[in-house]
Write a structure and sequence with these properties.
653 residues, 3 domains, four-stranded antiparallel beta sheet
Length: 653
């Protein structure tokens, strides 16, 4: 029996294994379908990540932010982080003409590969570590082919330089830890078999050596140096949990408070950035993480990146959908950011299939200055103030839906003077009809003559009294009124939807009359002129909005405090201002040609009428002239506006 190799490896060490009851079907599955009838030699070990995720219920995946990833997406992280440069170095060595010199360079290069150390501090089932190991071993095997060229190797010591003990991981789920270890062992065995073919020698794989570099633990609490010495570490990589602030449990929020004292509304993934940044101080460690795109959008940018002032972004993938190999996995809009304390000579921005060289990659993932656009209560420029729409907080009892309107005014015609058209984002963009009870100034005696109105007011009061929010309960004292009324009386305004589809090149702002009541799904710009409308609906303002606004998935979330109040308006001449007013009116006139169409229809990129498109293009040119320059593309617009923002903020100080 001693002649047979044994497995060992410590995978089940100190564990009490409960042996399940084996039915005949299970035994057939194991002994035939999964053994004698199936060739496991070519199985990709990263598939275990998808298999592991499929064993978890949706709530477990959501609460832990688990997303196991495709090989293609893993390479979006590891290729620009290190693999591309290693392949380029190997290619340079191949081009060395002298055979002995080339062999020496290749020997040194293989030793270099063996000296690299990798940490995935949220390693899950080990997909990133496994694919990284496989990629380095494939590269090493390619070099071995060229070095030995079919010759039998008699001294096999030192032939394989890349080993799984170069790969470290931290994972909270104990089962995932074991899956990761197993996947790496399988990968090591497969690559050893490939090497055997090259060197024409049998290599011993068994017994497995104990592999303890993947540890079970809370990565935001433990000291990473207990896992791997920082002076030995080369790269940090991975796909930390995708958990938004509102979905974090109490323990996760406590973890974040340790790292970001007093700061709220940061996604869980931010914790891994902070830990990696702190761990890399004084080191040449480079990091690349997949993240939800929220960390480069809206107010999060200034709150979060202020904690990482010394980190340099060396490459980045702008927002894209992160696909998982597991069935029924959520689609998440992500970015990939490669950062470190040291600056690379070449920086790259990936946007879809497009790859561009950047002088500087800022926190919004643009080739632009390192600015953090802060939330601002008042506009940076001398322009009208934007305000939020009115907040009903009424349990919809002050709202009259389209299907109820005719019946309501038929039964209670005396209430019609209190009924106003109501617009939110959906009503405005899609042409839906809705009304509200606007009871400002209504006397108690008049209200009692309107029993339907009186009943709705009573229900509004009850709803507010039952609210869990103390601020809303206070508004139960005034149940005839919207909780917050921000709309100036008797003024026309420009209306701005808070949310809009990312497919639109232009968010369709527009004018509304004073008789229209708006809710808090929109913002309004009272006292705005055609000139102001023309500027904010231009491609220049839209580029600014796309760069810094928040998002819901990938749709725009327009914020007055971040987008509008920080926007650098131009300083036009009277002639330029007049030209913008004319082109802005041209946009409204083009819309009027299609009175039976909703704005959503008019601004669908597939159905946008040519007259409207031409009107917008004319307005874009007029606004561009007011800035005194011609822009090549949107990236150039954003870079210029961020420079202007930097200048204006400096002047304010």
């Amino acid at each position: 029996m001693k002649d047979f190799p044994y497995v060992n490896g410590g995978l089940f060490e100190d564990e009490e294994i409960e042996i399940p009851m084996f039915t005949e079907d299970i035994m057939t599955l194991l002994l035939q379908n999964a053994s004698s009838d199936f060739d496991w030699s070519g199985i990709n070990p990263t598939i275990f990540g998808a298999v592991f995720e499929s064993t978890l219920n949706q709530e477990t995946r959501r609460s832990n932010g688990m997303h196991y990833t495709s090989i293609e997406n893993i390479h979006k992280v590891i290729d620009p982080l290190f693999l591309d440069s290693l392949k380029e170095e190997a290619e340079r060595i191949r081009n060395v003409s002298n055979r002995e010199t080339r062999k020496k360079y290749f020997d040194d290069f293989r030793k270099k590969l063996g000296g690299l150390r990798f940490l995935d501090p949220a390693c899950g089932s080990g997909n990133f570590l496994t694919e990284t190991y496989l990629s380095l071993r494939r590269l090493e095997n390619e070099i071995l082919k060229e070095t030995f060229a079919g010759q039998m190797v008699f001294d096999v010591d030192g032939v394989i330089n890349v080993h799984i003990d170069q790969f470290y991981g931290i994972e909270l789920n104990d089962f995932a830890v074991n899956v990761a270890k197993t996947a790496l062992w399988i990968a090591e065995f497969q690559m050893m078999k490939e090497t055997e073919k090259i060197v024409q020698v049998d290599l011993d794989f068994l017994p497995l050596k104990s592999y303890t570099n993947i540890v079970e633990g809370n990565a935001l609490r433990i000291d990473w140096e207990d896992v791997v010495p920082k002076d030995k570490l080369s790269y940090i990589l991975g796909n930390p949990p995708f958990v938004g602030f509102s979905h974090m449990n109490a323990e996760q929020k406590a973890d974040m408070q340790e790292l970001f004292p007093g700061v709220k509304n940061l996604d869980f993934v931010c914790g891994w950035y902070k830990k990696a940044s702190d761990f890399s101080v004084g080191m040449e460690i480079e990091t690349a993480f997949v993240s939800t795109n929220s960390i480069v959008q809206g107010e999060t940018v200034s709150r979060f990146w202020a904690f990482l002032p010394d980190d340099i972004i060396n490459f980045a993938y702008r927002s894209f959908i992160w696909e998982s190999e597991a069935s029924h996995a959520a689609q998440v809009h992500c970015v990939i950011i490669g950062f470190s304390k040291k600056e690379r000579s070449l920086k790259f921005i990936f946007d879809g299939e497009k790859k561009t060289v950047a002088q500087n990659i800022n926190r919004y993932l643009f080739d632009a200055p390192n600015v953090l656009v802060m939330s601002r209560a008042k506009p940076l420029c001398d322009v009208p103030k934007m305000v939020y729409g009115n907040k009903p907080a009424d349990g919809v009892h002050l709202i009259i839906e389209k299907e109820d309107y005719e019946d309501f005014i038929t039964r209670e015609p005396q209430a019609q003077k209190y009924i106003k058209p109501l617009l939110g984002a959906s009503e405005y963009l899609h042409g839906k009809k809705r009304w509200c009870l606007w009871l400002v100034g209504a006397s108690p005696a008049e209200l009692k003559k309107c029993p339907l109105v009186y009943e709705r007011v009573q229900r509004c009061k009850e709803t507010r009294e039952q609210s869990i929010a103390a601020a809303i309960r206070k508004f139960a004292e005034t149940p005839t009124l919207f909780a917050q009324r921000t709309q100036p009386v008797g003024k026309a305004s420009v209306i701005i939807p808070c949310h809009s589809s990312e497919t639109r090149k232009y968010v369709p702002f527009g004018f509304i009359g004073p008789e229209i009541i708006v809710n808090n799904a929109v913002q309004i710009l009272p006292d705005a002129s055609l000139y102001h409308f023309g500027v904010i609906i231009s491609n220049i303002h839209m580029a600014w909005m796309r760069a810094i606004c928040g998002r819901i998935k990938s749709d725009y979330r327009y914020s007055k405090d971040v987008v509008y109040n920080n926007f650098p308006f131009p300083t036009p001449t009277e002639e330029q201002k007049s030209a913008i007013e004319k082109t802005a009116q041209g946009i409204l006139d083009a819309r009027a040609l299609y009175p039976d169409n909703s704005l959503a229809d008019l601004y669908d990129p597939l159905t946008m009428p040519p007259e409207l498109r031409k009107a917008h293009e004319a307005n874009d040119r007029a606004v561009e002239k007011a800035y005194g320059r011609k822009f090549a593309d949107e990236a150039e617009i954003v870079a210029y506006l961020m420079q202007e923002y930097q200048r204006l903020v400096g002047e304010k100080k």
